[in-house]
């Protein structure tokens, strides 16, 4: 009788496990790969920082860029001079109007958004000469620097 009882318990346990396995398989069918990817991409997108639009006005063009919230002044400046093809970068800088209305030079070692740039979209900067050499012919090596 004991052996019969053990087989009965074992048989019920086996049927219970089979029902659980069937339920798990059914659940797995509902969780398709596309559903999993859709939920994970939503999570990834919500954690990605929102890009910021920037407009840089030069003497003869308006340049549009998109930067990340942690972009430094140097990274933005490097992007500008690379876009216009300027090698003599030490004479120039980016200016902006701060929240009080003062014209200010962008600090290269700080994040763009941590500076007091007027919060508008796009952020506005001007590409300007910051340093003027005493003897231009000795200092300038690239003709594009003199154009204007």
Which short descriptors sum up this protein?
148 residues; alpha+beta; Ubiquitin-like (UB roll); 2 domains; 41% helix; 19% strand
Word description of this protein:
It is a single chain. With 148 residues, this protein is α+β, with helices and mostly antiparallel strands. The protein has two domains: 46 residues; 94 residues, Roll (Ubiquitin-like (UB roll)). 41% of the residues lie in helices and 19% in strands. It has four helices and five strands. The protein has a five-stranded mixed beta sheet with strand order 2-1-5-3-4, with helices on one face. It is rod-shaped. This is Moesin/ezrin/radixin homolog 1. It is found in: Cell junction, Adherens junction; Cell projection, Rhabdomere. GO terms for molecular function: actin binding. Its main location: other. InterPro entries: ERM, Ez/rad/moesin-like, FERM_CS, FERM_domain, FERM_N, Ubiquitin-like_domsf.
Q: Helix amount, in percent? A: 40-55%
Distance between the termini: 106 Å
The CATH superfamily name of the largest domain is Phosphatidylinositol 3-kinase Catalytic Subunit, Chain A, domain 1
User: What is the molecular shape?
Assistant: rod-shaped
Largest sheet: 5 strands, mixed
Low-confidence stretches: none
- The helix/strand class is alpha+beta
Mean pLDDT: 79
> Strand order within the widest sheet?
2-1-5-3-4
What radius of gyration results from the CA coordinates?
Answer: 32 Å
Oligomer: single chain
Number of strands: 5
Q: Could you say how many structural domains there are in total?
A: 2
Beta content comes to 15-25%
User: Count the helices. How many?
Assistant: 4
CATH architecture of the largest domain: Roll
Provide the succession of SSEs.
HHEEHEEEH
* CATH class division of the largest domain: Alpha Beta
CATH topology type of the largest domain: Ubiquitin-like (UB roll)
GO cellular component, one term: adherens junction
GO molecular function, one term: actin binding
Pfam family, one: FERM_N
Domain FERM: 52-148
């Amino acid at each position: 009788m004991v052996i019969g009882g053990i087989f009965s318990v074992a048989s019920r346990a086996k049927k219970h496990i089979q029902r659980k396995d069937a339920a798990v398989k059914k659940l797995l069918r509902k969780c398709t790969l596309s559903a999993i990817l859709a939920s994970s991409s939503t999570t990834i997108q919500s954690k990605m920082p929102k890009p910021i639009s920037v407009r840089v006005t030069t003497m003869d063009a308006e340049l549009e860029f998109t930067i990340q919230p942690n972009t430094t002044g140097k990274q933005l400046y490097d992007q500008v001079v690379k876009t216009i093809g300027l090698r003599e970068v030490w004479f120039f800088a980016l200016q902006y109007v701060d929240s009080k209305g003062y014209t200010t030079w962008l600090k290269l070692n700080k994040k763009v958004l941590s500076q007091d740039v007027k919060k508008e979209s796009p952020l506005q900067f001007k590409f300007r000469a910051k340093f003027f050499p005493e003897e231009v012919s000795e200092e300038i090596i690239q003709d594009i620097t003199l154009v204007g």
